[in-house]
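Q&A log
Question type: sequence-to-structure
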Amino acid sequence: MKIAVPLEGDLVASHFGHASRFAIYEILPEGLRKEVLSPPPHEPGVIPRWLSELGVTHVLCGQMGHRALMFCQEFGMEVISGVMPVPADEVVSEFVAGRLRVKPRFCKGHDHGHGCGGGCSRRG
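Response status: OK
Response body:
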């Protein structure tokens, strides 16, 4: 299993498409391996394709647009949205242990000022 987490610093990014870095966690018999990478420039479908090429099976994020969600699903990745902006290492540990609880959050509609494409339930 490979898990991608968009980052803002060391925290889970509030929005998938706005992250300048992604932590990629690989679950191995000997433990967790983590690598932090910069994604290619943001264009529709580019980041999901890139993650798929890295072998990512799961994405943990704050919010994601419906179009990005569809791309991730087309590439066979499971998306878990609604993750709070806490340290990514903690979120992945909770997820792997089966204890991560979230309320899914997705953006929809037209842009409304912060570039997510609109309609998201962004706080603050």
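Response note: The helical segments are 46-53, 66-74, 88-96.
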